[in-house]
Amino acid sequence: MSPAIPADGTLWQEQGRPEIYWIRDGERLHIPNPYVMEALSLDFNAVQTVPQGGLDHIPLDLSWEPLGNATPGSVVHVPLPAPGAILWNAGQVYWPLPVATTKRLVAWGQEVRTVELHGWIVGGGGPNTNDPDFSYHFEVDVRWALERGIDLSALVKVGNILQLPAEQETVPIDARAWCAKPVIKLEIVGYPPKGQRDRKQPPDWAFKDPDFLLDDDTAGDANKKPPIWPFDFRSPAPGNVSIGDGDYVCVYGSLVTDKSHKGGFTGTINRAAINDAVELWSAGLGNNENDDARWTEVHPPDWLKIGTAPWSQVLRGVVVAAPGTFEWRTRVESTLDVDIPAPPRPAPDSVLHFREIVGPETDTGTIIEGNPTLTGAAIMQTTNPDGIHVHVKVGGRKSLVGGSPGKFRALYWLAWDAPAPLPPGPPLGVGPHQVTCATKRRTGRLTAITAIGGVNDDGTRWMLSRDAAIAAIDAGTRFYTESDGRRADIVVARRFGRRYLKTRGDSVRRNNLQRLPACP
After folding, report:
1. How far is CA 25 from CA 73, 104, 386, 400, 467, in A?
2. Mean pLDDT of the chain
3. What is the CA radius of gyration of the chain?
4. Which end of the chain is more exposed for a tag (fewer CB within 10 A), N or C?
5. pLDDT recorded at residue 155
6. What are the residues whose beta carbons fall under 8 Å from the beta carbon of 272, sequence distance 6 or more?
């Protein structure tokens, strides 16, 4: 029998070796240096020792492995309450975003969620001398994300479509019915970070660009001086090679949402149109976590690696909104008709695949024209050029007090000839969802459930990794199995310090999940 996994939160070291490991979610994460120990409020005196090889049975958490002993930015710039906020404007500028596959830590007393994403660098970004930061714009690899159970509708927000893409800077647009390439900002943060100027400086951060000067009168002695960076932001660690538009990258860092910046975008011809649309999507005063107009960032990335794109894709996001009005007035409507081109066809016999991913901000009761069930847009495949045509119309709600906006938000992903069948997405809604298959892995005498799957009401398959399913259950989604007319709810249990899936006790002794067929 394998030794037990130590309890989460404990610290371990093998005799004669310098590495200290922190147990998190049943894995061991290398704590690279004393600064990180202090940031995570860990105590050197609590480190327990074992003989060499005594930790080999504990899986390695490779989150910071590419950095060696360097300090990751995610423990330097952390989400904090909004500076200077008062009761009516309380909240945070940045909120950690707990989508599936993120890993949780607490740095300087604040929750941080870190994530790995793959995708492409696209146009936009650059230096911000006020914060200071240097940003890249990033398009997520949809297939890679779906294969890992990441919910794209939770990852990509309205602001990633409406406010960040470069398309809105060139020609006038109708921001109430808008289609663009959704981008996620990757913001490498310099020291001292805005809103956290008193943060302790990581002693190993040393890179300076003499042409990049901090420009913020509130920065004290640091103002008008070069910030200190974890690495050359134009050639990030660990590869230290220049990154540019079109590069396929793997990025790891702190996943947050940023406020909508209402009233901003003074440098674009569409400022008034965008701010009008932002108002329709906004909820609260911007610092609240549930504001629909926010956008997603990796802020900051701990590291970026250049890789090779395994396939090509086209990803577009649409946001359609119509203002509410009074009962005695004509309903306000917004209509989107847009052609979305496919990527270049790789071979004459290639087959085009496409998927619609409707966002949770959508009010399906306000869709006037769309698919037959009015749960999404009407989609028609086109040829010459290859692609799809998307049509949707929404109308604002009417009431005696002015109604509420009609809203539709979705992503459209197009790809040719998938190297494997299109991966199933997440289950639709909170359930309960029947689990009809399970992926299993045998370790010694134990058989572990590594993924579960089933079929949505619309006939599409869904599948979640074990960690994604646990996160979904924690968030309120319900799952069950059914055999011989007996139903058993799926719950999260803990064994040897690790969380796993099982069925709640019923008349069947064996875990019902073990009896399910393998997922295709």
Report:
1. 21, 9, 45, 51, 10
2. 89
3. 24
4. N
5. 96
6. none
pLDDT in tens, 471-487: 889 888 899 998 777 88
DSSP letter for each residue of 356-396: EEE-TT--GGGEEESSTTSSS-EEEEETTTTEEEEEEEEE-
Provide CB contacts within 8 A for 266, sequence distance 6+: none
Q: Measured between alpha carbons, how far is residue 434 from residues 7, 438, 451, 501, 509 in Å?
A: 32, 12, 14, 14, 20
Residue in this structure with the two tokens 């890992």, named with its chain if needed = 148
Please identify, among 61, 82, 100, the residue that sits at the C-terminal boundary of a domain: 61
- Print the domain residue range for 31: 11-61
Tell me, yes or no, whether 291 and 362 share the same domain.
no
**Domain end among 370, 386, 416:** 416
Q: How far is CA 139 from CA 58, 185, 249, 313, 395, in A?
A: 34, 9, 10, 10, 30
Distance in angstroms (rounded) separating the CA atoms of residues 502 and 470? 11
The answer to whether residue 427 sits within a structural domain is no
- Whether residue 18 lies inside any domain: the answer is yes
Residues 256-315: tens digit of each pLDDT: 999 887 665 555 667 778 888 889 998 877 788 889 999 999 999 999 999 999 999 999
Domain contains 6: no
175 and 99 share one domain: yes
Query: To the nearest 5 percent, what fractions of the chain are helix, strand and coil?
Result: 15, 40, 50
Residues 322 and 206 occupy one common structural domain = no
Give yes or no for residue 378 having a pLDDT over 90. Answer: yes
* Element containing residue 481 per DSSP (H, E): strand 479-483
Q: Do residue 205 and residue 257 come from a single domain?
A: yes
375/231 same-domain check: no
For the chain, the residue count is 520
